Amino acid sequence: MNVRIIGVPMDLGADRRGVDMGPSAIRYAGLSGTLADAGHECVELGDVSVPRPENLDASESRAKYLGEIETVCRGLATQVEATIDAGEFPLVLGGDHSIAIGTAGGAATQGDTGLVWFDAHGDFNTPETTPSANVHGMSVAALLGKGEFADSDWAHAPNIEPSSVAMVGIRSLDDAERAALRDSEVTVFTMSDIDERGLPTVTEEALAVAGKADGMHISLDMDFLAPTEAPGVGTPVRGGVTYREAHAAMEAVADRLDSVRSMEVVEVNPILDSHNKTAELAVELLASALGKRIL
């Protein structure tokens, strides 16, 4: 494929600094060369412009920096849409998980779009329910037009139906978020499901859910993995998947690559990392998702 790499060095949606350096860390870990070795032509588009939080005021807000996040996500969605229109594959590097509003929203301009959400968290809060006011915990709710996102033309993506959304690896939910997911048509695979049935089976089921749409977007939060495997993430949660399990999941994605419109990897935090281990793992997993194999 012709892969266009788009960086989004944003931490406005998170509660700690550092994930804004994620795109640089992933590139430094050899992303372009690794994908080229896997047979892909890579074009580096640089980074979307992101305002610095030091110059902004997030006080008294139930969704911190929401206006600035909107601006970034609008620009990102335009780049993703243009990339797909050009017959190329958008690979987006985060940044915190609020960028998914722009990535998935841009992909969804092409028609019905399924969403596979590899994450420890559900990201299903709204400004009314959030305990933190951090937008990276609202991304899926925003895309589905929940709460005050219902009339938001930049966040709500009507071409993404809840019945075509599957979450994999979930193990940390707020009370209101848990209730909202139970009342929704979103398919949630928790770590208990993975323990009982294995990640390859669960991933295939998640891809089948998203595959009901005309195309799909893959969103990989590195806290999907256990912190022992990926220590440099914004919001680590114990009990995630192993190195080999994560590769098996991405290999399953590769088997459905003809249906995948776009992909992103998010929440790499070099400040919390050890010797760029998490960024290097992100590169390996992206290569597996895009078809690299051992043999």
Automatic annotation (TrEMBL):
Cofactor: Mn(2+)
Superkingdom of source: Archaea
Keywords, sorted A to Z: Arginine metabolism, Hydrolase, Manganese, Metal-binding
Tagged with keyword Hydrolase: yes
Xref: PROSITE patterns: ARGINASE_1 (PS01053), ARGINASE_2 (PS51409)
Catalytic reaction list: L-arginine + H2O = urea + L-ornithine
A Pfam family this chain is assigned to: Arginase
Gene Ontology terms: biological process: arginine metabolic process; urea cycle
CDD domains membership: Arginase
Cofactor binding notes: Binds 2 manganese ions per subunit.
Top EC class of this enzyme: hydrolase
Residues engaged in binding Mn(2+): H97, D119, H121, D123, D221, D223
Pathway: Nitrogen metabolism; urea cycle; L-ornithine and urea from L-arginine: step 1/1
Record-listed E.C. numbers: 3.5.3.1
UniProt key word Manganese: yes
Gene3D superfamilies referenced in this protein's UniProt entry, alphabetically: Ureohydrolase domain
A molecular-function term among this protein's GO annotations: arginase activity
UniProt cross-references to InterPro entries, sorted A to Z: Arginase (IPR014033), Ureohydrolase (IPR006035), Ureohydrolase_dom_sf (IPR023696), Ureohydrolase_Mn_BS (IPR020855)
Gene Ontology CC terms, in alphabetical order: cytoplasm
Family: Belongs to the arginase family.
NCBIfam families, per database record: rocF_arginase
Protein name: Arginase
